Known about the structure:
This protein is of the alpha/beta class.
Amino acid sequence: MSSKRIGKSVCGVALLSAVLLAGASALAAPVGIVDEPCPAPFAPSATFNDLVTALIIEPHRIAPEEFERFLKNPELAKINEAQRLAASQDWPGLCRFRAANKKVVAGATPPRVVFMGDSITENWNLSDAAFFDKGVVNRGISGQTTAQMLVRFRADVVALRPGTVHILAGTNDVAGNTGPLTAQDFKNNIMSMVELARANGIAVVLGSIPPAAAFNWRPEVKPVPIIQELNRWLRDYASQKGLRYVDYYTALAGPTGELRADLGNEGVHPNRKGYEIMKRLAEESLGRNR
Length: 290
């Protein structure tokens, strides 16, 4: 297997990895306005989840034979089809946490913190599930852009009545996962989420976009200068609005703006060592709410 093929495969696995935990729709969704719009979820086996964790989260240099084994896993085709159906039926991912949100809302105590984000937030569960306990809720969805997060922000954050929301987004905007956009489009989505939160009495923590020197699923994109520029805006916007800002970028970046090889197995998503650093920074910022 060529290194180019490995890179593309790794990215696909990483973008899938945490979606697997809660599952995606394997059945056609209902049509129109209905009381129950979400079909039953498809749940991968614990064995498959363990395989993904070993591949993405455990720090190591990924070998070609690992991907040969992974690509031949009989569950992979089912999972890919489930993800495809979910994306076509539910673009913003409103079904993903609908059942879990009902349980949170019915609880006696609102969460202290909701983490809103993409696969970098979602994969945090794989690395440190205990971090998302005792009032800390993970609402990351793999592959999502800020436009999708904005659509589900009321359901997945505001309705839960947390004290704080931690927003970690932008990697997939830079990659153009849901189509081309301007830097101002990204900024507008962030500002809208912040305004929604503050209008509902929710404190906001903005996380920087983590470093990445390349996206294997978007090789034409040169992300380093774009990430750096958007992070400068995030930092300045947080300062202007009195928000807390967490600089994950500086802690995780190598000398050319890449994700350090010891902190991520495939150049975009942190591994366990990377998440240990992120956890320390998050706890420093969220300390008063934990």
